[in-house]
Amino acid sequence: MGVPGPFPGSAGRPDAPVLDREEADRALARLGAEYEAIETSLSALQDHAGRRLLEGADLSGVTKERWAQTERSLAVLWSLFDAYTEVLSAAREVRARRRWPSAADLAELSEVLGRGAAPVAVGDGAGGAGARIGLAELVDRLTGLYARSLDVIVAADAVWSALPARIDLLAEELRRTRSLAHSVGVRPGEHPAGDDLERITQELARLRSQVIADPLAFWVSSGAGSAAPGGGRPDTVRYDRAARALEDIRREVAAVLDVRQDAERRLMLLRDVLSRADRTLTEARQARGEVLAKIAASEVPAVSGPSTVLHEQLAAAAEYRRRSQWHRLSPLLDSLEERAEEELQRARASLTAVTAPLAVRAELRGRLDAYRARVVRHGVAADPLLVERYDLARRMLWSAPCDLRAAEQAVWRYQEAAAEAMVPQAGDGRGEP
After folding, report:
1. What's the angle, vertex CA 168, arms to CA 151 and CA 220, rounded to 5?
2. 313 lies in the same domain as 413
3. Which of 354, 379, 402 is at the close of a domain?
4. What number of CA atoms fall less than 13 Å from residue 237's CA on the CB side?
């Protein structure tokens, strides 16, 4: 609905001289146009949606107080308008007597316009009982009361037009979020976000109730310098704070939803990682037994068993998933994934540590066979010293338990003898190929 415009200024003055016919006609024309503008503005104000809402609302606080003042102002506005109407009607009646008014008619017309309006009720801001009001002053008072009344009506209507609808939309979004949150275990008393949802729900209900009852408490004026009716804007601080809090919760619920959708895959991967860790530890324990049986005089580290704590937590995670306690499952999965990977690395390191002696024995066997092949290529494999040292080293490396230190010395002595045997003799033509 459009906002009515301001009133035009009045031509009536209490000290005005006697008008001639043309001046009288011009004055009446101006007053008629002024009258129509005032009537249009007052009618628009009377029909304003904000006024009708205020009139039927159960108000409180600052709005109740200011609307009571505005209702009194509206009554005075119509009283002033009625007084203006009486002056204009009396003036028109005098002018309508004759087409060409006599001097007496013009004097009476000038006197009617000059003396102004009849007195109005005390306390309306227009003067005390018995005081008459010049038409210019009457219009000024009409304009002031009109502007203050319109300011209240427009401000209340602006708040009611803006905030309740936005609050209702946010409340609907809140209901959807609560339903989704409950489905993933985010409930009051069980999750902080569930408690926050309850607080936001209560805050929106309070906010809506207060906005409906006291809209002017949620109006931020643009200052005394603003000439526009209802100059200012609705105060949305509390609404904006609730909207931001709800958005934070929506993100948290979305994260929990991601956990729900990805939970089975992550649980399967966790079971696989822990299973590999357990198998690796089992292999390490078996390898340790083999090392102890096959390798003598070697320090073999002990091998621990599977992590009971991790398996218990994995079982707890599966239970959380079964009960749809996604908000508890999420942090537990994050922790388990990191610790399960550490467990697998620990198992692999344990296997490497316990099989180190077997790796050393394999390396010595490979070195012995490599030197044996070289002496064969040089044609000195039948050398008695080489045969003796090779057989000794081979017996040590292929017997159980194997003394790695002694076997290493035997292999070294064979290498030393082989190196001397493969040195070419003067004039025999043999040498390294």
Report:
1. 30
2. no
3. 354
4. 5
3-state helix, strand, coil in the chain (%, to 5): 75, 5, 25
For residue 3, pLDDT over 50 is answered with no
Whether 59 and 142 map to the same domain: the answer is yes
Query: Using the 8-state DSSP alphabet, how is residue 126 labeled?
Result: S
Q: How many domains does the chain have?
A: 4
Do both 152 and 28 map to the same domain?
Answer: yes
Domain-embedded: residue 246: yes
Put residue 362 in one of left, alpha, beta given phi > 0 → left and psi -120 to 50 → alpha. Answer: alpha
- Say whether both 29 and 149 belong to one domain: yes
What radius of gyration do the chain's Cα atoms show?
52
pLDDT at residue 187, as a whole number: 82
Separation of CA 117 from chain center: 62
Least confident among 1-5, 115-119, 180-184, 249-253: 1-5
3-state secondary structure of 220: strand
Enumerate residues 6+ apart whose C-beta is below 8 A from 37. Answer: 5, 7, 8
DSSP annotation of 218 reads G
Maximum C-alpha span of the chain: 167
**Is 272 found in the same domain as 204?**
no
The residue among 323 and 53 whose pLDDT is bigger is 53
Which H/E stretch holds residue 144?
helix 135-183
**CA atoms of 364 and 370, how far apart (whole Å):** 10
294 and 401 Cβ atoms separated by less than 8 Å: yes
Task: For residues 92 and 90, give the distance between their C-alpha atoms in angstroms, rounded to a whole number.
Answer: 5
Name the pTM for this structure.
0.59
Whole-Å CA distances, 288 to 24, 119, 227, 275, 406: 126, 117, 93, 20, 21
CA distance 349 to 359: 14
Number of other residues whose CB lies within 10 A of the CB of residue 432 = 9
Q: What is the pLDDT of residue 230?
A: 62
Shared domain for 265 and 167, answered yes or no, is no
Question: Residue 187: which domain range?
Answer: 162-257
pLDDT of 123 > 90? The answer is no
Query: How many CB atoms neighbour CB 146 within 10 A?
Result: 24
Q: Tokens 């526009």 sit at which residue? A: 228
- Please name the amino acid found at residue 70: T
Angle at which helix 237-294 crosses helix 326-354, to 10 degrees, equals 20
Q: Report how far residue 402's alpha carbon sits from residue 397's, in angstroms, rounded to the nearest whole number.
A: 6
